[in-house]
């Protein structure tokens, strides 16, 4: 049977996750338990959601540099308005989704580089977050706390949530008509336009959907940490981009994989724990995390080259 | 004649004019396509074939003239699609990251609702079987995983497929460029069948055999106008080539009898395993002709990379390159004219790795005078110049180097005739001084300036013409193949 190139691209991320997990279990056998797994992957849930949001933006050949500050902003809204006056909170979050759609339209119509626009927006979101929560605080809504600390039988909630996120987004991005159009815009927007579709509409919807998933990331994060801070998720910008790439996605060409993105987010979270287990001092951890990224990406490049050589023969 | 008049007009474009800046792409062209006929459209580079196709499919709105689909005057891409106009473009226009079925979903908006995947698959598979019986394309693969020929087959099949209504007019722009002879024959047979059932096809091809055998009517375009529109049986390969050519404007040039001494300065074995080998001697001006996109630019790049590493610049450049697309890979838009000129020769202009300002300015002043760059100050931004003068700066950039060979990738696109004449003069005198020029041009007048011409077809050199043999007729005859050779 001939493997499709999409499946081949998933092999490396899946294999690196399994390898890392095996290494963690070898060093710390007690992690091989319900509580252990939940602790290992707990923080992966918001990262996975943010990674999915970033992946949606990347599927139309753009990049969102405001992801971290936007998730922080959403976390602040969740810990304050959404908790005290839910209606107002929901309205603010809906407004944020609309803002994302507008950003998508502006980027398309004015033909602006998405990096510049989202970098500018990152200061807007960061400023709003500070206005809402000048000092760390707030409270998590009860339901968010309940969801994130639920204890389903057999499998910890972090794993269940990851699988659920992967399944739902796989359906939206890879199976639905909308997903096809979205990836079509990334692959060849002229051909989508020639077929009579509105590329502006598709882009607006894609950005709105990305905003929605980023909001979920903010809520999940507050559900875990019980309170928020304006700088709570700044790392998410780069983590989400790294997660998409690690999971077999590409910067251009509409080649993305939701399952791969979730796996990428899990791998990144696990890489942090793995380095702690190795007793590497926190000073070196960021560098070591980068080294892991480079190794995985190098493997993928090698695989791509192999694939290309096979095709040209 | 009375019979054709009764037939339904699928598309009628009359007196269409389209201008891009100073260039008249279409100058009052008429094209009427009736139901149940296959029209062959031929013409040389810049004749306006692609422009009229873009007008018909709604991508371009004409500046003058009338355009109607089945009698109603509406415009735009969706109007054209609603009237059953489909187009297979020369450059592949599928989404490479999607599967065959997903691409069908994008092209056919009607495929909505539950279970569209299996319906899309059966649609494409049935159509592929109809057109190319015995094909072996797995429609679950993404376009990336298919070969070029398979991609083209899929695109053709998707365009011919219809769910609620069959397409009325399918425009095929060089559909057989990457198909082998067997597949091309299958496609031509299908076109005949489609036409018999009442559909219409507009076929553009450089293989005249295909055009002559498949079309009912042949339209010949030249300089944005339709110059011949007759029943296919009235044409022969010869008369078709003559209709495309420009018999009146035959100019006389005095070519210096080239003296070949010693080894060729550049040579290249036959490309893609067939055709002729390429050779260039010192002081020659060599033209690369043929239809656009038949491998001329690739040949130039190969010649260049042959001498210069892709990774590391060589110390002394023997070859200079004049790019064709000024804005894409020619000028540095933010720099001054002088900086744009001197960038290629900074090595000679520097002492101790520092650019010697005085020498740079002398160089600039010298070239400003020599090629008459019309500017008060070489320190002005390059964009303050007209397009033609920008192009002159790019020429000067290449000529100011010590390179003995200059490669030119259709550099005169969109340059006015006066500037062209000046540049031709400079090229001639530089060639007489022993420089070698290799010049890809889509314009016949420029090709006729060369000492020797290689005509490209399908990525390989199809013919070599020298001296008096370089006529428009000979170049055209070599650019369009007879038919059987795919």
TrEMBL record, chain A:
<protein>
    <submittedName>
        <fullName>ABC transporter permease</fullName>
    </submittedName>
</protein>
<feature type="transmembrane region" description="Helical">
    <location>
        <begin position="114"/>
        <end position="133"/>
    </location>
</feature>
<feature type="transmembrane region" description="Helical">
    <location>
        <begin position="7"/>
        <end position="27"/>
    </location>
</feature>
<dbReference type="InterPro" id="IPR001851">
    <property type="entry name" value="ABC_transp_permease"/>
</dbReference>
<dbReference type="GO" id="GO:0022857">
    <property type="term" value="F:transmembrane transporter activity"/>
</dbReference>
<feature type="transmembrane region" description="Helical">
    <location>
        <begin position="39"/>
        <end position="58"/>
    </location>
</feature>
<feature type="transmembrane region" description="Helical">
    <location>
        <begin position="284"/>
        <end position="303"/>
    </location>
</feature>
<keyword id="KW-0813">Transport</keyword>
<dbReference type="Pfam" id="PF02653">
    <property type="entry name" value="BPD_transp_2"/>
</dbReference>
<feature type="transmembrane region" description="Helical">
    <location>
        <begin position="153"/>
        <end position="173"/>
    </location>
</feature>
<dbReference type="GO" id="GO:0005886">
    <property type="term" value="C:plasma membrane"/>
</dbReference>
<keyword id="KW-0812">Transmembrane</keyword>
<keyword id="KW-1003">Cell membrane</keyword>
<keyword id="KW-1133">Transmembrane helix</keyword>
<keyword id="KW-0472">Membrane</keyword>
<feature type="transmembrane region" description="Helical">
    <location>
        <begin position="88"/>
        <end position="107"/>
    </location>
</feature>
<keyword id="KW-0997">Cell inner membrane</keyword>
<feature type="transmembrane region" description="Helical">
    <location>
        <begin position="204"/>
        <end position="226"/>
    </location>
</feature>
<feature type="transmembrane region" description="Helical">
    <location>
        <begin position="232"/>
        <end position="252"/>
    </location>
</feature>
<feature type="transmembrane region" description="Helical">
    <location>
        <begin position="259"/>
        <end position="278"/>
    </location>
</feature>
TrEMBL record, chain B:
<feature type="domain" description="ABC transporter">
    <location>
        <begin position="5"/>
        <end position="248"/>
    </location>
</feature>
<dbReference type="GO" id="GO:0016887">
    <property type="term" value="F:ATP hydrolysis activity"/>
</dbReference>
<protein>
    <submittedName>
        <fullName>Sugar ABC transporter ATP-binding protein</fullName>
    </submittedName>
</protein>
<keyword id="KW-0813">Transport</keyword>
<dbReference type="InterPro" id="IPR003439">
    <property type="entry name" value="ABC_transporter-like_ATP-bd"/>
</dbReference>
<comment type="similarity">
    <text>Belongs to the ABC transporter superfamily.</text>
</comment>
<dbReference type="InterPro" id="IPR003593">
    <property type="entry name" value="AAA+_ATPase"/>
</dbReference>
<dbReference type="InterPro" id="IPR027417">
    <property type="entry name" value="P-loop_NTPase"/>
</dbReference>
<dbReference type="InterPro" id="IPR050107">
    <property type="entry name" value="ABC_carbohydrate_import_ATPase"/>
</dbReference>
<keyword id="KW-0472">Membrane</keyword>
<keyword id="KW-0762">Sugar transport</keyword>
<keyword id="KW-0067">ATP-binding</keyword>
<dbReference type="InterPro" id="IPR017871">
    <property type="entry name" value="ABC_transporter-like_CS"/>
</dbReference>
<feature type="domain" description="ABC transporter">
    <location>
        <begin position="248"/>
        <end position="483"/>
    </location>
</feature>
<keyword id="KW-0547">Nucleotide-binding</keyword>
<keyword id="KW-0677">Repeat</keyword>
<dbReference type="GO" id="GO:0005524">
    <property type="term" value="F:ATP binding"/>
</dbReference>
<dbReference type="Pfam" id="PF00005">
    <property type="entry name" value="ABC_tran"/>
</dbReference>
